[in-house]
Write a structure and sequence with these properties.
single chain, 120 residues, mainly alpha, Arc Repressor Mutant, subunit A, three-stranded antiparallel beta sheet, elongated
Length: 120
């Protein structure tokens, strides 16, 4: 799948959809006005852009996701590691931990993830 990037405002708008789906486009516009101080036209413009990116669909005025927030985050993370660290997850973790120490809970969680995905 193609690389999908969202700006900060698009991400906030997408969160409204993910948290409330399925949601009518008119209800989405109302919530966007309340939460983002947007006009209805702005909501519909951004919704169309996100639908064109393949993240959401608007069928007969009902908006649902084609990609979950977790899937999008996974795609973006994979793309970042690929582009920035030549696809090396260990290089990413090494860089990350030079500025932020991992807690023992985070280390245990990472070990569980590795154990679950270890190739035999």
């Amino acid at each position: 799948m193609k690389d999908i990037q969202l700006g900060a405002i698009e991400s906030r708008f997408a969160d409204i959809i993910w948290e409330n789906e399925p949601i009518s486009s008119s209800e989405l516009a109302k919530r966007s006005e309340e939460l983002l101080n947007w006009k209805k036209t702005t909501s519909y413009t951004v919704l169309k852009r996100l639908c064109d990116k393949g993240i959401f669909q608007n069928i007969k005025g009902v908006v649902t996701s084609l990609i979950s927030k977790q899937e999008l985050c996974a795609m973006q993370s994979e793309s970042f590691v690929e582009e920035t660290f030549d696809g090396s997850l260990p290089a990413f973790i090494a860089a990350f931990t030079t500025r932020k120490r991992l807690t023992s809970e985070e280390i245990a969680h990472l070990r569980r993830i590795i154990d679950e995905h270890e190739e035999e």
